[in-house]
Amino acid sequence: MARTATGESSLARAVRVLDAFTADEPVLRVSEIARRAGLHVATASRIVGQLADHGMLARGEDGSVRVGMRLWELASRAAPTRSLRDAALPFLEDLHAVVGHHAQLAIRDGEEVIFLERLSSRDAVVNFSRIAGRLPLHISSSGVVLLAYGPREVQERALARPLEGRTAATVTSPARLRTLLAQVRSQGYALLPGHVHEDATGIAVPVRDGLGNVVAALSVILPNDDRAASAVPVLLAAARGVGRALRDP
């Protein structure tokens, strides 16, 4: 693999270029890509051109750059997430039909939650999560469930870092978060009113595979009122259904 004068591989630089794009900013100028990737503009432009030649990135007529269809195509072949999404989708559709707002499927990636699927309605309550979007584990109901059932070392790393707050209700105290994780493990679900947005309540439950391991979180985002908790039983039933589908594909 080719290496630069600094000893960094060309592949590492290409990954930094791709990492410059976010769910909120999927279209960037080369100068911004260079700044985020820590590269000279000429170097970033050359790498962008090479990636565009292979369909990983695409250039607009105005000089803008976005993620290419080839990269999406390759990502869609990720077998573990694809099989999980396929198993969960029928139950996610039923769940969405019942709650009438947002129903979503998420997994843990390091110390973040990433959303694989989301079904929504036009007049549903506000929701900041999106497909392929990420949030810190401690903020969303899905993330809290995945953190609660995750490895101890992941929990300790999350507890040791500054905990970002989105609203006044977001848990930003390590002691409170530790208590919340224990509560989730005890009751089997997370119910977080107003933690991401004041008007919304997130409720999530764990999805287990055939060995009993928690592999995902199933969640709904509902209006922040006294009726939200009534969705817990249907969520738990849906998660059991996904678990059965994973065991008996």
What topology emerges from the helices and strands here?
Blueprint: H1 10-19, E1 27-28, H2 30-37, H3 41-53, E2 57-59, E3 65-67, H4 69-75, H5 79-99, E4 102-109, E5 112-119, E6 134-136, H6 141-148, H7 152-160, H8 174-187, E7 190-193, E8 200-208, E9 214-223, H9 232-247
Helix pairs in contact: 1-2, 2-3, 5-9, 6-8
Short description:
The chain is an alpha+beta fold. 43% of the residues lie in helices and 20% in strands.
Structural account:
The protein has 249 residues and is of the alpha+beta class. It is built from nine helices and nine strands. It has helices at 10-19, 30-37, 41-53, 69-75, 79-99, 141-148, 152-160, 174-187, 232-247; strands at 27-28, 57-59, 65-67, 102-109, 112-119, 134-136, 190-193, 200-208, 214-223. A six-stranded antiparallel sheet has the order 6-5-4-9-8-7, sandwiched between helices. It has a three-stranded antiparallel sheet with strand order 1-3-2. Strand 4 and strand 5 (112-119) form a beta hairpin. The mean pLDDT is 90.
